[in-house]
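Can't paste images in this forum, so I'm doing it all in text. The chain is below; anyone willing to post the predicted structure tokens underneath?
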Amino acid sequence: MSSKKKSLEIETLRGLACLLLVLYHVIGPLGGGLKIDIGSPFRVIADSMVYVRMPLFTFISGYIYSLYKIRGNDFSVFFSGKVRRLIVPLFCVGVPFSVLQAVGPGVNKDVSVMDALLSFYVPINHFWFLQAVFIIFMFVGLLEWRGLLRTPTRLYLLFAFAAAVFLLPAFPVDAFGINGAIYLLPFFVAGMIGQEKVSELKQTFKVIGPLVFVLISLTLLYVAAVDRELIVDRRSLIGLTVGCVSCIALLSSDMRSKALTWLGGYSYAIFLFHVLFAATSRSILGRLGVKDESVLVFCGLTCGLLGPVVLSMIFSRFNFTSVLFLGERAATKKKPAATIAPVAQTR
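Text version of the structure:
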């Protein structure tokens, strides 16, 4: 994001989304990650995040997309940019990761090699987000390109459509992450609406926004502690409402944090590689005989956040790795300006 349009509160929310995502995957779903059982405070925390974690990531994507809407006839440029940013890392990071999971010892998830090789089509890991967001970008981008989202009313109608489809039963086969795209679309559109109304939201809800989010968080923690089955269904009216309200509340709060802003600058690398570092931390500590849940979660969270940051710094130094593994645009070397010899020195 350019310095002109860079928003410290959005970068802070990026960092918060990274923190929630990594913490969830460190703790893991029931039977995964650290295999923490029901009744543990960490299990309650992991379950309570379900309505906020990925909606917040997607809300931010919609907000930032709204700053760079397609204009004119440059859809081909938009398409190629999203292929580079999302699909190239899907093949160069997502598929190899799934294969490593299939053949590696001591993993929690039983994945066949064939399923791993086909994971670009039917997702089996967190990389489903790449496929889902790509579909959303293409769908919303086409509408924008054809001039169908030029008024607020049409944007609200798109949200209503997304919400209606969100509540429909999922497809039996999640081809190219289509179920994920349907799940995330309302939050993406909510992010677009949030960007259009950001000034009004901050003026109206700057004080009440944080209170609303804290209240929602406490309620989710309580429900997850009492009966986790009441909270794990993401595609529900409650999930849609809580996700959208939470994102709007966080945006309107104008929250800023230097630490979270710094993390937010590496959000894509953290998303791509955090599981690798968190799993490595879990494996090493397990071999050392460490069983304390607090130590395991803290070390996994630290490695899952900082490991990808270091990897990003290394990959970004070289065009080859930055394009393949981070989806970044290849840097172009500037040609040195031609030096003109002074007339007095020419012979």
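Residues 270 and 305 are 6 Å apart (CA to CA). The mean pLDDT is 88.
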